[in-house]
Amino acid sequence: MIKAVRGTRDLLPPETALWNFVEAAVRDVFRAYNFHEIRTPIFESTELFARGVGEETDVVAKEMYTWEDRGRAQSDKGQSLTLRPENTASVVRAYIEHKLWDRGLNKLYYIGPQFRRERPQKGRYRQFYQIGAEIIGPASAGSESPARDAEVLELLATLLDRLGIRDWTLQLNSVGCANDRAAYNEALRKALEPVVGGMCEDCKRRAVTNPLRVFDCKVPEDQPIIDKLPRISQFLDEGCRRHFEQVQEILKAVGVPFVLNDRLVRGLDYYTRTAFEFTHGALGAQNAILGGGRYDGLSESLGGPSAPGIGFAIGEDRLVLTLQESAEAVQRKPDVYIAPLGAGMDREAARLARELRRHDLVVELGDENFRLKKSFETADKLGARFALIVGENEVESGSFALKNLEAGEQVSVPRAELAGKIQAR
Ligand code: AMP
């Protein structure tokens, strides 16, 4: 038997109803904040992620699905391509490629699959879905303002509330700008030197190449050592400190609760200043439901103009996991099950179904070869609200037997009144 590849999975009904419910709610919220959708390709040149995400990150160093294009044209041959492991680099590439700065501030969102070769477990997959957004533009359009950071965080709080997700915590940090980071990296290197010998292999490597990444370490024995390392909050310059304070002031003013977490440095290299994560109690080990932050230098590192930005990515799989119990509730059940009774009635049933579906009703069709008992059983199993019987007598008289399956009562209804009767609750 051929099965779905490890780390990938089929999304089946009724769960898919939940995915659609989430996506519809998300699109609504984005509309209210004047975000517009962008769809970028599923694969890009490998170089985009190497430069845009960072060679030293786990994502680029270990987790990408990369291959060499065999190509038909000579120009394609040997090009290294990668399934996108995240979407921000692609959005910024598109921003540069299409000169989107001409419109000032760009508020873009995406929904789609991402690919990382991680060890699969509950809430962690190799093909997973992200819902993300970016605000990016020239500083003159206000893209650098702490008001944008706060707007994005308030949007996220609204979104989670709207989905009925209550048990979330916003963890907030500032990772400073390039200057702060240089001084901080130096301090970290110094602090790590005497202790790194007792840490895991990954940390030993990170201490040399990119000490900040030590904070990604999940090895329990390393945690007491990491707890004693200097924190970025002690190294913020005046501008970054002020920026961070202003973000917090707005959040307090609009009533979005947060906790400060100066261990939070996020897995991707391009973040500057505000970094954040929303965690959720019910998710267990993989408790990060979304993450994001500011990336003021990303556009330049991809060869574009200065374009400060801030964004986030929600793990849609994890969002849906927290809503799992509601899957049955959001799946729309048939309003009516049409039971054709006897030869020639499939045709009549099809005509009626067509009429009723035009009224936006969910209609399921039986089969003229089914006995009435079987039709009722099927209608029950599907959770239909009504059963409509279509037999020769009904067609002749133009009046149809409509059974309310919840109340159990049956009435005869003229054809023209059927839709109204079924719509009424
Ligand atoms: P990142 O792009 O690493 O900042 O991740 C943003 C969010 O995507 C995380 O908070 C997770 O909710 C989700 N996510 C990241 N990797 C995976 C994965 N392998 N499987 C499922 N969700 C993921």
Q: Count the helices. How many?
A: 16
Ligand identities: adenosine monophosphate
Gross morphology: elongated
Helix fraction, binned, reads 25-40%
Distance between the termini: 46 Å
How many strands? 16
Please give the largest β-sheet.
Answer: 8 strands, mixed
CATH topology of the largest domain: BirA Bifunctional Protein, domain 2
Q: Provide the number of structural domains.
A: 2
The overall pLDDT, averaged over residues, is 93
Question: CATH homologous superfamily name of the largest domain?
Answer: Bira Bifunctional Protein, Domain 2
From the 3D coordinates, which CATH architecture of the largest domain would you assign?
Answer: 2-Layer Sandwich
As a whole number of angstroms, the C-alpha radius of gyration is: 28 Å
Structural category: alpha+beta
Summarize this structure briefly:
By secondary structure, this protein is α+β, with helices and mostly antiparallel strands.
What does this 3D model show about the protein?
This protein has helices at 15-32, 46-52, 58-62, 88-97, 146-162, 178-192, 201-209, 223-227, 238-254, 298-301, 316-323, 327-330, 345-358, 372-382, 392-397, 418-423, and strands at residues 36-37, 43-45, 66-68, 80-83, 106-115, 127-136, 168-174, 259-260, 272-280, 288-294, 309-315, 336-340, 363-365, 386-390, 399-404, 410-414. It is of the alpha+beta class and 425 residues long. The protein has two domains: 15-177 and 237-327, 2-Layer Sandwich (BirA Bifunctional Protein, domain 2), CATH 3.30.930; 332-424, 3-Layer(aba) Sandwich (Rossmann fold). It has an eight-stranded mixed beta sheet with strand order 1-5-6-11-10-9-7-8, with helices on both faces. Strands 13-12-14-15-16 form a five-stranded mixed beta sheet, with helices on both faces. Helix 13 (345-358) links the parallel strand 12 (336-340) and strand 13 (363-365). Helix 1 runs antiparallel to helix 5, helix 1 crosses helix 11 and helix 5 (146-162) runs parallel beside helix 9 (238-254). The radius of gyration is 28 Å and the shape is elongated. The two termini are 46 Å apart. The structure holds adenosine monophosphate. Adenosine monophosphate (AMP) binds next to strand 6, strand 10, strand 11 and helix 11. Adenosine monophosphate binds at residues 86, 116, 118, 123-125, 128, 130, 267, 288-291, 313, 315, 317-318.
